[in-house]
Design goal:
Structural class: mainly beta
Strand order of the largest sheet: 1-2-3-4-5-8-9-10
Shape: elongated
Number of strands: 10
Strand content: over 45%
Distance between the termini: 40 Å
Length: 215
């Protein structure tokens, strides 16, 4: 009986000792202003503009050792941009250049690995590599020719797949809290178009400057 009590006390003290060295989990909020763009490798299509976007979200980090852990949460992200094509959405003979202006919104769930350095003063450098699973919330695509608006005939997939790469700094401001700043690339690697008479192959990616506060 005494051995059981002593072993229990030992493991409790060991757990408290480990937790005293680093915080095993963090939660926080973030905002991410940046630019998104449309890219394509399909003949006859050409991405022509970048657009400002403002994303935001909730972040959670779960560390299995002090400097390595799992990152997750959810983000509300926008994918904006324009591309040109040489056939119109009414399936009539091509008579000039058309343009689609895209404004899509997704809820994204990132799942990845976070790595950070030991503290240098009040700072840490960190990096993240994650897969981003996005679910389409809204679609505000507009089709133009010669600045005249036409009926949009593009449908988008409900799922978006992305690789997220992030590099940033943590500034410790309280004993267990920190401000974060990072540059993040959200690179869409699958076609986001799903049918319609315009069977286009396009991807929407973004680069953002992320500011967050972790508790």
């Amino acid at each position: 009986m005494k051995k059981t009590i002593y072993l229990s006390l030992f493991f409790i003290l060991l757990t408290l000792s480990v937790k005293a060295q680093y915080k095993p989990f963090q939660f926080g909020l973030k905002v991410s202003p940046g630019f998104s763009w449309i890219k394509t490798d399909m003949k006859g299509l050409d991405g022509v503009s970048n657009e400002f976007n403002l994303n935001w979200g909730f972040a959670g980090n779960f560390y299995f050792v002090e400097n390595y852990g799992i990152s997750t949460g959810f983000d509300i992200i926008s994918v904006k941009g324009s591309y040109l094509f040489d056939s119109n959405p009414m399936e009539e003979p091509s008579d000039g250049e058309w343009r689609n202006d895209i404004n899509l919104k997704y809820v994204q769930i990132p799942i990845g690995l976070k790595m950070r350095t030991s503290k240098v003063g009040d700072f840490r450098i960190f990096g993240e590599v994650a897969y981003g699973l996005g679910f389409l919330l809204s679609d505000k695509t507009t089709t133009y020719k010669d600045d005249v608006e036409y009926v949009n005939d593009v449908e988008y997939k409900n799922i978006r797949n992305a690789l997220i790469v992030k590099l940033g700094l943590e500034l410790i401001v309280l004993k267990s809290s920190c401000v974060t700043a990072a540059v993040s690339l959200n690179d869409n690697f699958t076609n986001i178009v799903d049918g319609g008479s315009l069977n286009h192959n396009i991807k929407g990616s973004s680069i953002n400057f992320e500011i967050g506060f972790m508790f």
